Amino acid sequence: MTREEVENGTDDMLIDGSDEQQRQDVNAVRHEVNANYLKSYYGKLFPVADIHKWLSYGNDGKHPRCDESYFGRREFSFTLENDVYLRFRSYNSPSELEKYINDSLPFQIDIGAVYSVDPSKRFAYAQSGDNVFIPVERELVFDMDISDYDDVRYCCSGADVCLECWPLMTISIKVIDTSLRDFVLIVSITDDFGFNHILWVYSGCHGVHCWVCDAKARRLSNEQRGAIADYFHVYKGSENSNKKVYLPGPALHPFLTTSYTNVLKPFFEEKLICSQNLFSTEERYEKILEMIPDESIASELRGKWQDKKRPPNSKEDFHIHRWEQLKNSLQSGKHLATGLRRCIEEIVFAYTYPRLDMEVSKHMNHLLKAPFCRVCVPIDPNRCEEFDPTTVPTLSRLLEELNSGASQMQIDSENKLKHDAKSKLG
């Protein structure tokens, strides 16, 4: 998310210079909600106290030797009406934060780093000549958007999502969450890198966010964050490149082997091939054939598939049959010495491996949308298959249920009063 500061009488007005997707997201919220919706949601449902407890990490003034200035050095950013973006806002208590949110009714709230000094006073420190305004802590975060899979999904595009393509996000959660908790492989950073405190959040309309909250994760430098992001960076494809993934070495890295065997390959073969009809048209199977470096094999398969356009039995048999043909061609004895068997793994990785927004993970000062902002709800990674993005409550639905519940409580209360009155009258 690139933001550009604008000197317009205040030091914290911002415009979004390049992130068109975020602008579209905020505009979509405006169509759904109005000021009354936001006022009711922030006033009755938004969990400010829980967010303060989370982001304080025990530095709440209630524990000995805690840093009472910790929460006050956390950056918050707000998207307001008329594309006004406010950065470097900070608050010393949950009540201060709650008051500002209820007064301004932001369309979006973003959370940034903990800085060395109060972000709202950064210019005072700059004028003093002391260059002390730097980020000192920030959760290790990951951002994955379903729109980045538009080249491998055919049911939806852009921010649209359905139950046919959402499993791509489910697979991403499984791969990244497992590796973060079992991470012991980057010796240059630490000999033991397993994380425990990991929060997964539905990003609101088109993806997932991951917040790694362990103390050692929050204190990573930009260089260390970059090393972790690069560790996960396998998908490097573009529309102009036939080679979509980078799998170095004669054999897969142990982490990639586990991900491929336990998660990616079963998902690709048992679900994705059929749910996205990957072999149903020439345009779709050509994307797969283009990943085969040996043109003779690709040409042979192309000839078989063009001559046999009708499925042999069911739709499932049709797609699986073509995938098995491809695997048999690449794994046949005459190709054992050519290294073409790695091509099967590359195809599976290209279609299923998590696609990270690398810049979000690499830099401490990057902003990320707050959980529960626009009802960005948590996802349990142990039950992520059960999460249904099509049933996530909207603001309007939540407030309807809240009002319905209040009306029912009022009716029950009135009935009770009538019953008590009758009882007293004998």
TrEMBL record:
CDD domains: AE_Prim_S. Residues 7-19 have a biased composition (Acidic residues). This is DNA primase. GO terms for biological process: DNA replication, synthesis of primer. Residues 1-24 are annotated as: Disordered. Keywords: DNA replication, DNA-directed RNA polymerase, Metal-binding, Nucleotidyltransferase, Primosome, Transcription, Transferase. Belongs to the eukaryotic-type primase small subunit family. Signal peptide: none annotated. InterPro entries: DNA_primase_S (IPR002755), DNA_primase_ssu_euk/arc (IPR014052). One of its GO terms (molecular function) is metal ion binding.
